[in-house]
Q: What sequence folds into this?
């Protein structure tokens, strides 16, 4: 592992930790005497700058070095977190700070993975992206316990100061990473909405479909898991711990093996594992052991899919368009992660969580089938030319 990759992994860990600390944001807003509705709007507001800035970041990074964007985005995350420590009588400031964090996270998620893909060669890109995404999972996994401890010791302000320290510390570390390799020539002048044309290209269709369906299955599961476990009288912590323990080895070790034998061949089996994990979750009633087993199976599947589809996208995209391609993969994933929660919440309320997880299992199965079908269609089309 080279020095630049190690530092970017550390920056990713710090920035994701800063963001994950804001899982406590709803409780903080309610503690200020505001309504749960305002808390919901504030949480959702994060995704407005995320969707606005992601395609712009991809296009900009196709013409510039990633290091500048990594430092700038980390600063935005740190300053946005710091803003929550400033007393204010207006909730509008909370939305401003949330916007800063959403924009910073959008830019960093593109710049970080692009830096890693540029630092790697096609032969070790999957391994490098595996390390990078493992750092993200470690940050997400440790934060709930860290957040509870910090709140108990110093209250919510201590939590926001810690988030600010993570973001600002990441920006400082970013000054010491090596300059990544810029594209050999200036990228074509594309419009802000050129990613829509990108989505329609057959070359990337299987990657985008996989990203969307993985985003739906992962996002809905993690967003509703705590509500589900509360309803059946179980803690959610064992699920998330078992999930993290399954994902991390896949990304640290499994990606190195997969790149030697072919990344695409494991996508469909990984979707099948996600489907099986969700199927087990739908039958979980009061057994913590079945909850843990479902988390492990689900984690083994999802743990591979996310870094694999990003690596495939990086490998098949030209240098002058890699930033836009990777940003579109991330945006499609977040579209699935965020935009289907309302429909799925309605389904859980009227049909129950067992039905919800069965539907998600079907979507994961569909993801595996569609990926294999589109990939085979692309191969046949290439052979025909």
A:
């Amino acid at each position: 592992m080279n020095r630049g990759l190690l530092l970017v992994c550390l920056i990713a860990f710090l920035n994701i930790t800063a963001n994950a600390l804001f899982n406590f944001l709803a409780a903080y807003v309610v503690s200020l005497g505001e309504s749960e509705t305002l808390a919901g709007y504030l949480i959702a507001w994060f995704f407005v700058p995320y969707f606005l800035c992601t395609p712009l970041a991809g296009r900009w990074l196709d013409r510039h070095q990633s290091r500048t964007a990594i430092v700038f985005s980390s600063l935005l995350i740190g300053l946005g977190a710091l803003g929550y420590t400033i007393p204010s009588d207006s909730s509008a400031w909370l939305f401003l700070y949330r916007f800063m964090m959403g924009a910073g996270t959008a830019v960093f998620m593109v710049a970080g993975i692009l830096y890693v893909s540029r630092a790697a060669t096609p032969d070790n890109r999957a391994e490098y992206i595996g390390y990078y995404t493992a750092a993200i999972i470690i940050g997400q996994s440790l934060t709930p316990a860290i957040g509870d401890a910090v709140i108990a010791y110093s209250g919510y302000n201590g939590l926001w100061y810690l988030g600010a320290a993570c973001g600002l510390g990441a920006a400082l570390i970013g000054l010491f990473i090596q300059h990544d390799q810029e594209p050999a020539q200036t990228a074509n002048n594309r419009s802000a909405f050129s990613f829509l044309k990108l989505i329609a290209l057959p070359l990337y269709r299987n990657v985008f479909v996989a990203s969307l369906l993985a985003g739906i299955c992962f996002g809905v599961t993690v967003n509703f898991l705590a509500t589900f476990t509360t309803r059946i009288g179980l803690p959610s912590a064992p699920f998330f711990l078992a999930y993290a323990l399954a994902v991390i080895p896949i990304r640290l070790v499994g990606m190195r093996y997969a790149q030697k034998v072919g990344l695409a061949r494991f996508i469909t089996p990984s979707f099948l594992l996600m489907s099986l994990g969700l199927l087990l979750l739908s039958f979980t009633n009061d057994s913590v052991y079945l909850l843990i087993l479902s988390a492990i199976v689900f984690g083994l599947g999802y743990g591979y899919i996310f870094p694999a589809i990003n690596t495939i996208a990086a490998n098949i995209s030209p240098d002058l368009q890699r930033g836009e391609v990777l940003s579109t993969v991330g945006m499609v994933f977040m579209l699935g992660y965020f935009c289907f929660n309302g429909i799925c919440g309605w389904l859980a309320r009227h049909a129950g969580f067992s039905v919800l997880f069965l539907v998600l299992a079907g979507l994961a199965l569909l993801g595996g089938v569609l990926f294999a079908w589109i990939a085979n269609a692309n191969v046949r089309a290439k052979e025909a030319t």
About this structure: The chain is about 80% helix and 0% strand. The mean pLDDT is 87.
